[in-house]
Design a protein that fits this description.
Number of helices: 1
Distance between the termini: 97 Å
Largest sheet: 3 strands, antiparallel
Strand content: 15-25%
Number of strands: 3
Structural class: alpha+beta
Helix content: 55-70%
Strand order of the largest sheet: 1-2-3
Shape: rod-shaped
Length: 116
């Protein structure tokens, strides 16, 4: 049996045999059945199936987390790069704006002295 906090095994006796469930802890008070199999002749068979399925379930979850982590890393790097490019573009725009304002100021001064 696994000592995973997120997933657990529940084996119950039903009318037509034993039922094994893999449950997931959604919140501290709520659990959800992720996988269910019924119709086992003995409790041991149900427990064996649940142990095997839970191991596969946890392995799939770990692989999924790895894939999601890689995708998240790529997404964060892309967002940082785009933010850096936007900041550089804004800095270039502000610099061009200041240069244009300075040039306009010089042109106004030249016009003022030309009038005298």
């Amino acid at each position: 049996m696994s000592n995973n906090k997120k997933f657990a095994i529940r084996v119950t006796e039903k009318r037509n045999g034993w039922c094994a469930e893999i449950t997931r802890q959604v919140t501290s008070r709520k659990t959800s059945v992720s996988k269910r199999e019924a119709g086992f002749e003995t409790e041991a068979l149900a427990q064996e199936w649940a142990d095997k399925e839970l191991a596969g379930f946890i392995q799939n979850q770990a692989a999924r987390n790895e894939r999601k982590g890689e995708a998240r890393k790529v997404r964060v790097e892309r967002e940082e790069r785009l933010a850096q490019e936007a900041a550089e573009k804004k800095a270039r725009y502000e610099e061009a704006k200041r240069a244009a304002a300075a040039q306009a100021e010089l042109d106004d001064e030249d016009d003022f002295f030309d009038e005298e």
